[in-house]
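# nightly structure sweep
# worker-07 picked up a monomer target from the shared queue
# config: single-sequence mode, recycle default, output format = C-alpha cells
# input follows
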Amino acid sequence: MATIKRYPWIRKFLGSPSDYVVHLSKGRLRHEGVGQAFWFRPDTSVLSEVPATDQELPVLFHAVTRDQQDVSVQANVTYRFGDPVLASQRLDFGIFPVHGAGQEASGRQQVGAIVGQLAQSLTVDLIATLDLADALASGIGRVRTALGGLGDDARLVATGIEVLGVRVLAVRPEGDVEKALRTPVRERLQSEADRATYERRAVAVERERKIAENELASQIELASRREQLVAQEGTNKRREAEEAAAAALVSARSEAERREIAAAAQAASLRQLGEAEAAKEAALMKIYANVGRDVLAALALREAAAHLPNVGSLTVTPDLVSGLLGALTAPAAGAPASDGPPTAER
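# output follows
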C-alpha cells in the first residue's frame, strides 16, 4: 500500500513494489509504474493503485445437473492485471482523493465479482449437460477445461485482466446424496474388511489347529516313548530279577553242596571218632577184664573225683581210715582165690 505525505498545498506519493500507480493530472497521464515517488497537487490530481502481483480468487458456487441434482463446485482462479492503466480506467482503483490515503478501493471486489460470475456461468452451463454420476466422475477435468476459456472472455480482455490458471478443487453433491452414494462403497469396503477379518481369523484358527495337532502329536510321541521306556524298564527289572534268581539259585546250590560236603566230612569224622571211641572202649574193656577189683574201684574213684566239687579241707579220722582199710582187706582175707575178675554186685 502506497503512502501519501501531506504538506501545505502539496502532497508527496511514495509507492510500493507490489502496486502499479497511475497518476492523472487534469485528465492527462503524469506518472505510472511500480515503486513510484513523486509530488502532486491535490486539487488537480487523481491517483489509482492497481495490484501488480498475481491474484488468487477462490470461488464456490452451486450448479444443477441434468438429472436435477444439486452439486457444489469449489475452484480457484489465478489472474493478474495485464494492462494496469486500462484496468484503472474501467474499474475503481482510486486511492486519492476519493477514498483518501491508506484506504482500499472497490476495484478488487469488482474484479472478484466479474471473474466469479464468469466462472460460475461457464460451470453451470457445463454441469447442466452432465448427469450426477458423470459430474462426480469426470466433472473436475471438464470444469477445468471449461474455465480455461476465461482468458478469452471479451469483458476481461477489455478490462485488462489476464487469467493465468484455474484449479478445480472439488465437485460434490448435497450431503444426503453424497452419503447415499458413499453407502455402497462403504458397505463394499466394510464387506471386504469383514472378509479380510474372517480370512485372518480362519488363518488364525487353522494355525491354532495345526499348533494343537502338533502338540497332540508331540504328546502321543511322548506317551509312546514313555510306554517304550516303561516296557524297557519292566524288561530290565525282569532281567535283573531273573539274574538275581539265577545268582541266588547258584548260591543256594553252592551252599547246599558246601553243607553236603561239610555234613559228609563231619559224618566221616564222627564215624572215625566213633570207631576210635569204640576201639578205645574195646581196648579198655580188654584191659579192665584183666585188672583186679581194687584197681577198678580206684579208677572209679578217680573218675568220680573229676566230677565232684572242690574240697577245701578234708578231716580224716581214725574210724574212717580203719573202716576203709577194713573194707579193702576184708575180701582178700575171706574170699577164695579166683582166676577170673571179680563180678560187680548190684
